[in-house]
Each structure stands twice: as C-alpha cells, then as structure tokens.
Amino acid sequence: MNIICINGSPRKGNSFKLLQQFLKGCSDKGHSTRLIDATEIKISPCMECGYCSKKGLCRIDDPMTEIRDALSTCDHIAVASPVFFFGVSAQLKTLIDRCQPLWAKKYILNQDLANNFNFIRKGFFFSTGGFDNEITFKGGELTVKSFFDALSVKYTDKVLVTSMEYITDINKREDCLQKAYQLGFHL
C-alpha cells in the first residue's frame, strides 16, 4: 500500500509526533509511505480564478501540481495539525485549498477519483490543542472531512488530544501515541 501523510505542524510538536507514530506503524507493517510537510513547501494560496472549474487543472505552477497527482493516486491519507483558532494550521489549509481542482473534477466535471480504485481509500486525522472544550477540534475536523471528500477518501479514524500546552506533552499520553501507531500498523 502507498500511504501519504501530510504534516501541518510548524513546530513538529505533539500532532507531528502522533503522525510519526502512524508512519512508524505503516512502515513496520511494510507499507510504502511518503511524508509531505506542508510547513516546508513553498506553495501559493488558491486565487479562486475558476480555471479549475473549467479544466480540472490549476493554472498556478508550483509544487502543488505534483502533490495533487500523488494525492490522487495514493491508497490512503493521514493528516496532522495542531489547532489554530479552532481550525488547522495556515500551511495545511493552503495545501488543502489548493486541492480545489480535485473538488472541481469530482463535483463539476464528474470525474470522481473513486472510479480509479476498487477499494475504499481511508483517511486519518491527528490533532492536538491546548484548549479543553468540546468544540476544540470541530473546525479542523470539518476542513479535513471536506478535504477527504474531495479526494473520495473515507474519514476513517482520528486521534484528537486536548490539554497539550507544551511541545512535549504528548509524550505523557502513551495511549494516544499507541493508538496512532496501531492505526498505521493495522491499515
């Protein structure tokens, strides 16, 4: 299996550590993995020009062209981001927004990626936040669910952890780290 993991954690802190455990589980099982770090690639934001609604392609020429191709052909996807104003990081949101051509292909041009697979592609979300409230992850989850939907990926499971004030707090939550590993290993 070919699994893409997208990091949206600028500090490579708690959310990234969950994603690393997922990656380790996938690798230990023998799956092929690729880490895309949204915080390190230089991509422009979506310009909402409408080009993708007509062509199914983006007119901006940057690394997102290759990333969209990889997301269109991989078997499964995992996404990690800390909470930023009840959403995902700006870097991850930019990457997600630049997948608008895939949304346009599915919903305007009737070219659903699901037609290219004979199995259900699975999606996983790993997120941490300092705020301990029932709405902490709502915005991020809605964004990731919408992203997965555009890619015809089923939102399958998640590890969402509150009360993560410091960059190493996740190390105190072996249960969460183990769950992330198991999700990768049993994929």
Please explain how this structure is put together.
The protein is an alpha/beta fold. The protein has one domain: 3-Layer(aba) Sandwich (Rossmann fold). 39% of the residues lie in helices and 19% in strands. The chain contains seven helices and five strands, in the order E-H-E-H-H-E-H-H-E-H-E-H. A five-stranded parallel sheet has the order 2-1-3-4-5, with helices on both faces. Helix 6 (138-150) links the parallel strand 4 (121-128) and strand 5 (153-161). Helix 1 (14-29) packs parallel to helix 7 (174-185). The longest helix has 16 residues, at 14-29. The chain starts with a strand and ends with a helix. The model has no long low-confidence stretch (mean pLDDT 96).
Summary of the model, kept short:
The protein is α/β, with parallel strands linked by helices. 39% of the residues lie in helices and 19% in strands. A five-stranded parallel beta sheet has the order 2-1-3-4-5, with helices on both faces.
Task: List the keywords.
about 20% strand; single chain; about 190 residues
CATH homolog superfamily: Flavodoxin domain
Could you estimate the helical fraction of the residues in percent?
25-40%
**CATH fold topology:** Rossmann fold
Structural class: alpha/beta
List how many beta strands DSSP finds.
5
What low-confidence regions span 5 or more consecutive residues with pLDDT below 50? none
Spell out the helices and strands N to C: EHEHHEHHEHEH
- Summarize model confidence as the mean pLDDT: 96
Distance between the termini: 9 Å
Radius of gyration: 16 Å
Q: Identify the strand order in the major beta sheet.
A: 2-1-3-4-5
Biggest beta sheet attributes: 5 strands, parallel
Name of the CATH architecture: 3-Layer(aba) Sandwich
| Strand-residue proportion | 15-25%
